[in-house]
Write a structure and sequence with these properties.
The protein has about 260 residues and is of the alpha/beta class. Helix content is about 45%, strand content about 20%. The protein has 11 helices and 8 strands. The protein has an 8-stranded mixed beta sheet with strand order 1-2-4-3-5-6-7-8, with helices on both faces. The chain starts with a strand and ends with a helix. The structure holds D-malate (MLT). D-malate binds near residues 27, 92, 93, 212 and 238.
Amino acid sequence: MIARVNGIDLYYVAHGRGDPVLFVHGFPLTGEMWNPTVERLSNRWSCLVPDLRGHGRSDVSDDATMAAFADDLAGLLDALGEKRPVVLVGLSMGGYIAFEFFRRHRARLRALVLADTRATADNEEARAKREATAAAVLTQGSKLVADSMIGTLFGPATSADLKAQWHAIMSRNPPRGVAAALWAMAGRADSMPLLTQIDCPTLVVVGADDAITTPAVSAEIHARIRGATLAIIPDAGHMAPVEQPETFAAELRRFLEAM
Ligand code: MLT
């Protein structure tokens, strides 16, 4: 389905009935990454899964920022008439967007799930690398990013088939959208000072073999958020919900049911 939000067409899927849970994918992925989770939770929760601007089937826009991504989510809730506060589940870049959503739309948030993410901003070296990659993607295509990420995205237990499927999805994302997201991530704020201000129920969840945002990074986030829960998913890397859908969904369900 398509909703007109902030001047662009945003693609989303909505499944199930119950309290609303909004799923935000990582970079350079699509809402498809949440299919295995939504399948398991939509009997009890209303699951809303957008493709972020510049990703999947949503429109491309060159002016992506974390603020624009967060405002698109709020705009999507408006477009759907969803006034209830949502549980926002964000993976990696989706977590960076979750922090921005907390800053800008706190009243719309019931709880946070920070999956395989980090709260720090990029340092100068990381920022320069993102900018160089963005320039290269615009001339060489998104496969360049898929090639460079595929080795670290998944844990050692994950099948070659699953990796190939996600390599293809990443490669299909429009280069302008991928470049805009790289710029947006390079410019994102440091969310470490925000962590002690987070005052909603929070689950921090990470794949035990996540090589991009390691369990140590999640443990640090967990330690700073008052009352947060930490869950480590065995035999999963950075794509924990895709790699271990049953365990990931069980942790999420336990958290949602305890709220
Ligand atoms: C992601 O999965 O969203 C990315 O690894 C985030 C990043 O590149 O910082």
